[in-house]
Amino acid sequence: MPTQNCDPMPARPLNTEIQGVLWDMDGTLLDTEPHWMAAEARLVAEFGGRWSHEQALELVGNALPDAAAALQRAGVALTEREIIDRLTAEVEAGVGRHVDWRPGALELLEALHAASIPCGLVTMSEEPLAALVLEQLPKKYFAFRVTGDMVSRGKPHPEPYLLGLRLLGEHVAELEPARVIGIEDSAPGIASAAASGITAVLVEHIAPVPDSASWQRVGSLLGLDVDSLGALVSTGVRA
Length: 239
What we know:
With 239 residues, the chain is α/β, with parallel strands linked by helices.
């Protein structure tokens, strides 16, 4: 019998329905970076050192133990825990006075809430500061949070986002990482998100971040909605 030519099976289309959104906090949800940078400069100055703007930019998005180590190298003669506590206390005081939400963040959170898409916070800040920030929101937009004191390896390691995916899986059946959006503003953060296998979206803020095939860049959260995030899933690349 002659061999029959069979048409190849059509490729299964990517399901672009978003299953969840994981948000960074500092610099993405709200602008706390000036508080962190000022606190670092004051602490270094207290021990007779100098702290440049360029040095501060290098710490944006990093895990707090890494930031503490950098300050120790700059001459701060305190333990890691003492440095983290000093910095965090100053940032908490700043947030307590005023919250500067990033443009479009609250609007996007509301759109996701209206569409019943769960959100989680994935931050290198520790629990007290994260709790303080979330208390300032007009609604309970976040189903859970991952904080720096919950992981052994911080950003840029994928552990924070892998934990975020595990917690999101408690709210979403048959979770597919590619259908989860991770929103970040810093190089360590976006690398962490991309390495976890989710759709990583960069909204660069105070520190420059190079382009990469592992993530997508948007200019602002302003104007983003559920449909435009779904388009990012459909065109997204994976680490």
